[in-house]
Amino acid sequence: MKLSPARLSGTVAAIPSKSAAHRLFIAASLADRASSWTLPSSSVDIDTTLACMAALGADVQRDGARVGITPIRTAASQATIDCQESGSTLRFLLPVAAALGGRYDFLGRGRLPERPIADFLEVIEGLGARTTAHKLPLSIAGPLHGGTAALPGHVSSQYLTGLLLAAPLLDGALDIQLTTPLQSRPYIDLTLDVLRQFGIDVTTSDDHFHVDANARYQLPDRALAIEGDWSNACFFLAAGAISAPVTVTGLRLDSCQGDKAVLDILRRFGAEVRITAGGITVAPGDLTAQEISMKEIPDALPILAVVAAQAQGTTVFTDIERLRLKESDRIATTSALLEAMGVHTESDTSTMRVTGAPTLCGGATVDSAGDHRIAMAAAIAALNADAPITLTGAAAVSKSYPHFFEDYASLGGDTLGI
Prior knowledge:
This protein has about 425 residues and is of the alpha+beta class. Helix content is about 30%, strand content about 25%.
């Protein structure tokens, strides 16, 4: 795909939050009665979670933008759970599947089999699960029982979310004690919010989580909706900071999603941010380098690095260790994207530095490395290049935002070869 220099401007609607949809659809599949959801657009990851819940025994019906879910009444005794490339689906459903009591074969693709789960599986085994391996492909069998689990918090917040989602299915109370500091706390806040909506109270402290033995998923009487996705909206908000004013609608300012912090980070860079009833508008300003911790918002590194490439000075990103273990090694692939466009970067285990360049060099070929966030970041970087760039692997956006390039073009993006 060729991406030519352009100016994005106008209004775009946020897509449904992938993070919220995973959690809500799992909870709905375990609830006490059927539910109906509006899903105006989906993604490979969301579709994967729905397919896995259907394999476990839920009745999932799709009709255009409507998703109907009849919860699991009798779990499948055996099933293949193909998590594709979705780390959330895998880590959320390993303990849930074990708690359902059957024997399930878990598969994954791309880099997913390389992503860490061994220490998580040891914790699940301590609660009664039996596994055939500590990496994909593997089989897991239950049942899981209540008790106490000592869980590392620094590897992935998805470990904790998986255990919390499984807790209401257990025959006793579950106490989870974190043995290391928790990373990406906002994702746990999102999990706790979904559990509260389904009638499950979790007693929490900084490093301890407790779910009572009598907790059960109960669909609320009020209609539930999937909120807009801050993680993907960040790409167009960032475009506003380096291109021309862009407005994104459908985002909740009171969201638990951690990536809403990008709005304040863009302000710190020097972009103009306006919040009205019509949406959130970001417009260009005099951008200056910042020091930014990625501890709570690791997925935002590629697009914030693109903004840093247009800021005066050297931006320092800290707490980036876990980015080696995403759909790509995002430290390496983000650096490769920027270096290909003439931007100087330096990185070590925990820090990345990006020195702003007055002009981004076109003519480069950028490889997404199969990573949706690298593909989208490259598209935003191309806006201010001095010549078109070539993006290989653009189809990776289907993982989280299949119609990204259609929305990009609607705002004025210049693409060839979609």
